[in-house]
## 1
Amino acid sequence: MVLSETERDGLVAAVRAAARTEILPRFRRLAPGDVGTKTSPSDLVTVADRAAERMLHDAVRMLMPDAAIVGEEAVSEDPSILDRLKHGGRTVLIDPIDGTWNYASGLALFGVILAVVEEGRTMFGLLYDPVMDDWVMAERGRGVWFCRPGEAAARLVGPPPRRKSEAQAFVPLFLYPPSDRTRIAARLPDWGRVTSLRCSCHEYRTLAFGHADLIAAPAPKPWDHATGVLIAEETGGSVWSGKPGYVLTDCETTLVVKGSAPDDPGWVSDFL
């Protein structure tokens, strides 16, 4: 089901409001007690994450009362919430602050990710930059668009074909199991540049703008990647997760998302 204009605009307005109310006022003003950890010392959560997710949850419930809601922080507290993605119907995925480590460290490289899933397929996705108040938006079958308040949206087409030696990949080597890191690292010199922004929101925005060619994600979480996969598909890219395609509920198989580069299997196998 295609989102109505009211639903789409309402989601954008809700994300902007949450950023304005709960995220930006706390940026570079977090007290030590405002930051906690989840699965590891570098897996952070802040009071802003939780407050923004609550605000977005309430806004989605008003806009789409029949939709299931899966928020990153809610799943952290109750992993069974992730099962809502298996039940069909409409589900809204919320990542209230993607790049929390950056946010808590005072780096202006974080964002809000939102996706609307219908029967297991992502139909709408939003990558919002709170600092600049602009967003990349994708709708299945309708392309990818860069939007600023009060300006006409500009269509994005992803990266042009590039050789591997000239290509940029975002690869979070630190997220791979220690036993795999040496093997993966040995392949990096063949690429033009390999780095990580520690923020899926801005990595996928960079791909949409045509400045990156590949994103790898071991143990991918759906709130981090559902929107980005839709963007890659809408700009002619390819997705692998054990096989071509992406299963939202598979958080174990390494996900590789490729822009519109030549169909070279080596681009994918380097990071599996």
## 2
Amino acid sequence: MFGRVGRLCLAGLYLFCAPLLAAPSPLAEELARVAPGLNPQALRDAVAAMQCAVEHGAEPARRLAVIDYSQPSTARRLWIFDLQQRRLLLRDYVAHGRLSGENYASQFSNRLGSHQSSLGLFRTAESYFGKHGYSLRMDGLDPGINDLARQRAIVIHGAAYVNPKMVSKHGRIGRSLGCPAVRPEVARLVVDKLKGGQFLLAWHADPRWLNRSALLACKSPRLLQSALRPLPDKG
């Protein structure tokens, strides 16, 4: 979409790069109006990656979630949008992996056992009841970046450590083993709104990801079969 130089601009590595960046899509502009606290570039990238996936055979979604991992864990950095009504359904806290960083996430991985968060576009799948209660499986759609999410058991679940009351003592909320865990109070809402084939983009101004993502560049991305197969649990 932007190419190598444009991606580096987004990561803040070049000055005077504005002319290189494509204009935001109408959808991104509409969603930005209902989410003024969300980094506009994170939202533009989320919409661009989602639209690229759909253009290459993925079924359109009804909802889009964006996690802005460039914000601290003390911020409400998870947004969930209704794409049909162009409205914000939820903004809340979300954890990152314990080896991704302290209050700020700075390290990301696709490796099993890394205990780090993954960046990129995910497609949500089936809900289930596990050790963390009502939870949601996801498939990473970016080859080499997040495509081991299911094998790594990267899921959305509620966790007591996602608690803003921890900030005064620890300077951050609690951290996960790599999952985007949410507050128990909103876990059911998050799972119900996102289950069954919605899109989620985990974003950060990380140049390694920005320059490697096939979906952000939309250059013949090799989508996983999970993005193309019929999806269950469309609640």
## 3
Amino acid sequence: MRTPLAIVTGGSRGLGFETARQLGGLGYRLVIGSSDKKKLTGAAKALKDHGFDVQSRVLDMASPASIKSFATWAKSLGPIDVLVNAAGILPESGNGSSVQGASDDDVLDTITINGMGPWRLTKLIVPHIAQDGRIVNVSSGMGGLQEMGGGYFGYRASKAMLNVLTRTLALELRSRGIMVNSVCPGWVKTDMGGSNAPRSVEEGASGIVWAAHLSPGGPTNGFFRDGQPIAW
């Protein structure tokens, strides 16, 4: 029986690493990508020390060339069962996160890495995703229109774009049985979330893993937190 394969971007730290760790525990072969080669090497070693079958490759979500190289390599590994788009950045802070105060560079970088990057990678990976495969876009309630508030303009816009990718792609891939969902992990204690966040990285990743491990015929075209639907 073929061992299922899961690709996790942003897999060198935080939610990406923990998602890969939990998927490894469920028996998946793992592929992790990250732009930081040193951290990526350390993360791969840590996962191998858990006894998991893991491969790693540098993946810069801001670089179309890097994304293409990664996808070309990944498709050689066999059918892909899961793609988790977990890589992301949040460079904005203080007044620099408002509509009026945000810098062009911060907003452009955030949308490029959090929105354009997953779109570019997913386009290349989709032809190689197995029947009943799963695509999980790690989004945020901050990108949901009904929860939209002030501040963090670039981040909110990037996650809203990721949600648009989920909704449109889910409809396009429904005939292949591929489930495409957005997941909000909540406010998590990571480098991005900070030490004041109320949720552990294990709690945040569990909802991502739930969506990545759905049974055939499971929900698609949804936005979830802890396995429960939330408003777009």
## 4
Amino acid sequence: MLVLLKRLVLKSVWLAVVFLGITLVSFFVIHLAPGKPTDLQTDMNPLITPEAIARLEKLYGLDQPVHVQYGLWLKRLASLDFGNALTGDRRPVWDKIKERLPLTFGMNMAALVLTLALAIPIGVTAAARQNGFFDRASTVFVFLGFAVPGFWLALLLMLLLGIVWPVLPISGITSLDHARMDWWGRTADICSHLAIPMFIYVFGGLAGMSRYMRSSMLEALRQDYILTARAKGLPERLVIYRHALRNALLPVITLLGLSVPGLIGGSVIIEQIFSLPGLGQLFYQAVMARDYPLIMANLVLGAVLTLAGNMLADVGYSLADPRIRSGARND
């Protein structure tokens, strides 16, 4: 237990160093991009003077050197203060993120659960019936999933299901008469608006996840302990789902850890296409407006999710493979 605690402390220190490195690189990179947050207020105003531009830059702290700006931002971050947005309503950044976080996080978590619920059985069945009809059919499905770009599929479904056969809404998250509906009506209205985006999320992740699950399962079925279990006369279902599946889940756990930061980054295009008021759309608007505090807040959230995914993957390894836990005790 003491060894595990020591490793956890060392891991936390290392993650803190990595987090600082991510924020440092991100802060300097976004300042290298052309344009400033004040451009939206000054470029289209023919009466603006250089003195007024200088006052705006001083008001936002943009007149300071980049390293000084980073130090001030890091000091505010220590107290969990992301500052105020430089564009739009100029409200506190964290308030704007809290408004949009539930939609993005909820959609991506639901899509991740659905993807796992479908990908694991598909991968296991394809591996257990290698070169059979189901395996070949799932291979074709996987190739389609890899080949079709998400944004193109989104536009195609919008055309087919929203215009040619108008059965689903293709923009926003609620209808105009949403407030007058009862609870069931409002729930059905939101689900209908999210049906196509959710399908895009699940379809894009299902192809890769099921293929990784199939490859990992095939590797596990070739191990000696599987041959021993079959030689003892154990039922095939018990061999596959009790002995092979647990070890085959390790690569999937790795993918899950890498999928956590995608809860924000993967939503930018889809939320912009379907006009969904989530974090992805907010991040896109912040980048277009050069809103540094809002951009950095989204990047910090992405960094935290990335490091959390790394930590969860380590924990998942220990839960799935007892050899890793025994190795930790022997260190």
